[in-house]
Amino acid sequence: MAEKMAMAKAINESLRRALEADPKVLVMGEDVGKLGGVFRVTDGLQKDFGDSRVIDTPLAESGIVGTAIGLALRGYRPVVEIQFDGFVFPAYDQIVTQLAKMHARSLGKVKMPVVVRIPYGGGIGAVEHHSESPEALFAHVAGLKVVSPSNASDAYWMMQQAIQSDDPVIYFEPKRRYWDKAEVDVEAIPAPLHKAQVVREGTDLTLAAYGPMVKLCQEVAAAAAEEGKSLEVLDLRSVSPLDFDAIQASVEKTRRLVVVHEAPVFFGSGGEIAARITERCFYHLEAPVLRVGGYHAPYPPARLEEEYLPDLDRVLDAVDRSLAY
C-alpha cells in the first residue's frame, strides 16, 4: 500500500526496515540517537533498536567514518550520518584513502558496505558550512558510489539499495526537500540505484538534474509549457556512476540539453555530462550543452543565498539561450 510521506520520514522508515531485516545494520552519527538527528530523520530509532545499534558518536567525523570502516571489516553494514555537508571534510581522508580503496587494495576480497549519509545543499537559511554541495569531490574518487534522491519514494528505495550495496555509497540528502511529500509504496519494485528516470516527457529540450534541483526543473518545464515549449525533465538520481545512456536517449530526441545543479558550475558534475554528451551526441545536438549552477565563490550568508542558488529565471534563461541557436 502506498502512503504519502515526507522525504525525512521516508528515510526514517527505510532505515527502520533495514534495522529490522538485518542485525548487522547499524546507524551511527552525532545526535542520531536520543535527539533523533537535527532534522529528526533518525527519530525513534534508538528507542526501538537500542543504543548498541543506533549509536550517538562524539563530534569527530574522521572517527565516525574510521569506526564504520572497522565495523565493515567485521561484517557489519554501518550507516553513518554526517550532520551537515560542510562537516564532512574532517572525514574526507578516511573516505578517500581508506573507504574508497579497500576493495581494490584487497584485490576484491574485502567488501565495504558503508553508507555515508550527508544532508546537503542550501535553501534553509543556514549559517556557514551548512549549505555546501560537495558531490563532485566524491564523484571524482574511484571506488565510491554517489547518489542523491529528489523525492520521498526514491529516498526510501535508494536507501534500501545503498545499505544492500557491498561498495561504499555516499548518499546525499537534499535538506530543503526533507519536508516535501510524495507517495511511497514500500512493496514496489524499485528502479536500479544508478538508473536515471524521465519525470516529465518533452520534445524541445532536456533538463537534467538530481536531488534538490529536480523539483525546480519541473517548475521550469511547467512555466515553459505556458509559452508553448516542451521540456523533458530527467532525474539523474546518481552522480557516480552517471546514466549516460539515459541522457543520450533523451538528447537524441530533444537535441538540446541544459544541466542544472546547486554546486558551482566550475568543475562541477555538469561539466562531465556536457563533455560526454558532446562526444556521444555531436551530430544530434542543435545547441551546445549549457549548465546552470552555483557561482565559483564561497556559499554566501543566508540573506544572499537566493541570489546564489539557481532559480526559475536563471534556468529559463538557459533554456531560451539554447532554443535560440
From TrEMBL:
Q: Which GO terms describe its molecular function?
A: magnesium ion binding; pyruvate dehydrogenase (acetyl-transferring) activity
InterPro entries, alphabetized:
THDP-binding, Transketo_C/PFOR_II, Transketolase-like_Pyr-bd, Transketolase_C
Pfam families this protein is in? Answer: Transket_pyr, Transketolase_C
Does the entry feature the keyword Oxidoreductase, yes or no?
Answer: yes
Cofactor(s) recorded in Swiss-Prot or TrEMBL:
thiamine diphosphate
Q: Which domain of life is it from?
A: Bacteria
Q: What class of enzyme is it?
A: oxidoreductase
List, for all copies, the residue spans of the domain called Transketolase-like pyrimidine-binding.
Answer: 5-180
The EC number(s) attached to this protein equal 1.2.4.1
Quick check: keyword Oxidoreductase in the entry?
yes
User: What does the UniProt keyword field contain?
Assistant: Oxidoreductase, Pyruvate, Thiamine pyrophosphate
**What is the name of this protein?**
Pyruvate dehydrogenase E1 component beta subunit
Query: What organism is the protein native to?
Result: Streptomyces murinus
